[in-house]
Amino acid sequence: MSSTGKPLLDVLRCSPVTRRPIWFMRQAGRYLPEYRKVREQAGSFLELCYNPAAAAEVTVQPLRRFDIDAAILFADILVVPHAMGLDLRFEDGEGPLLGTVRDVQEVNALKQLENSWQLKSICETVALASEGIAKHVAMIGFCGGPWTVACYMIEGKSSDWQFAKLVAYRRESWFIRLIERLVEESVEYLSAQIDAGVEVVQVFDSWAGELTGRLRREFVIAPLSEMTRRLHERHPNVPIILFAKGLGTDHGTLAEASKCAALGIEAELSMSWAAGNIGHEMVLQGNLDPISLLGGEQIAASEAVELAKAIPSYRHIFNLGHGIKVGTAPETIGAVVEAVRNWDRAHASP
Ligand code: CP3
C-alpha cells in the first residue's frame, strides 16, 4: 500500500511510514494559556463544547505550537448521555455532575441521539476543525466506552465505581440493556462524526481496568468488539483505536476479539513487554507517563526516548498513557516531540 501523506493513517493502515506519528491525550486543555482564554470567553466548559467555532479553535491550537500528527475533536465522552437526555454540568474542581440511570424505566426513557442539537453541534465542530488543519494532520473523533460511560450514568459523578461494579456483578437486566443502548448510540455518534470528516476514531474506556475476569469480557471486551464490528461494516476504511485503560495483560484478548487497528496502552504497562506480547506486530499507542512531563524538559525528553526505543516507529503512535496534567509546561511537550523526532532521525533504517 502506498503512503497516504498522513503519518497517523499510514501507521494505522500498515502503509510505509514517513515518520512516527505523535499526538497527546488532552492536547487541548487548561495547560495551554490560549485554551484558557477561549474557554473564559465561551463561559463554561460545556458551553465551549457546544460552540462549534470556539471548539474548533481549541481543537487546532496545539497544532500551532507543536509538530504533531493529529487533531482530536474537542468535546467530551459525556456528550452521549447528555444527548440521550441526562442533565450534565461541570463544576470547577469537581468534575462532571450527570443525571443518573438506575432502573429499567430510566433506561427506557433514554433518547436516541440522532437529530439531537448536541450531535449537530459536534459535527459542525468536526467540519470546521477539519478545514483548519494541515494536509499531513489526521482528524480523530472519539467517544467513551460503554462501560465507562455507564459508570458515570450510574454514579452521577467521578467515583471509585463501587455501585456500578456491583450492578455489573449482579448482572441487573437494566444494566445489560444500558450497555446495549450505549453500544448503539456510540456507533451512531461515531458514524456521524465520520460523515462529518473525522478520519480515525478512538474509544476511551477509561475505567476498563476496574472490571476483572468474566465481567471484563462481558462488559468491556464484548461491547467494544461489537462497536468495532458495526463500525467496520459501515466505514470499512476508518481505523479504530481502542483505549481500554488498565487491561494490562488482557489487551491482547481485546485486540483479537475486536480486530481494531491499534490499542492504547496505559503508562503502568511496560511498552517493551506490550510490543513483544500483544498480537502479531499490533500497532500500539502510548504510553509515556503524564507525570514525567511535570518533571520538566530534560526528564520528559529522556523518558520519551526510552519509550521510542521500546517499539519501532512503523507500529507505534507516540502518546501518553493518560491525559496531560494541568500544570504541564507547554515547552515540555515541545521538548518531547523534538526528542522523539531526533531519535527517530538518528535511527532511521536506510
Ligand atoms: O484534547 C483532547 O483530548 C480532546 C478533548 C477531550 C476532553 N475530554 C476534554 C475535557 C477528550 C478526548 C475527553 C475524554 C474524556 N472525558 C474522558 C476519557 C479520557 C480520560 O481522561 O480518561 C473522560 C473520563 C472524560 C470525563 C471528564 N471530562 C472528566 C472526569 C472531567 C473532569 C476532569 C478534568 O480534567 O477536569 C472532564 C472535563 C474535561 N474534558 C476537560 C477537558 C479539556 C477539563 C474541563 C475544563 O476546561 O475545565
Write the layout of secondary structure elements.
Elements: H1 7-12, H2 33-42, H3 45-49, H4 52-65, E1 70-72, H5 79-83, E2 88-91, E3 95-98, H6 104-108, H7 117-131, E4 138-144, H8 146-155, H9 162-169, H10 173-196, E5 200-205, H11 213-234, E6 240-244, H12 251-258, E7 262-265, H13 271-277, E8 283-288, H14 297-310, E9 316-320, H15 330-346
Parallel strand pairs: 1-4, 4-5, 5-6, 6-7, 7-8, 8-9
Antiparallel strand pairs: 2-3
Order of helices and strands: HHHHEHEEHHEHHHEHEHEHEHEH
- Percent strand: 5-15%
Instruction: Please give the share of residues in helix.
Output: 40-55%
The name of the CATH topology is TIM Barrel
| End-to-end separation | 19 Å
Uncertain runs are none
The hetero molecules present are: coproporphyrinogen III
What does the radius of gyration come to? 19 Å
Q: Biggest sheet, strands in spatial order?
A: 1-4-5-6-7-8-9
Give the total of domains: 1
The helix/strand class is: alpha/beta
Give the rounded overall mean pLDDT. Answer: 97
The 3D shape can be described as globular
Total beta strand runs: 9
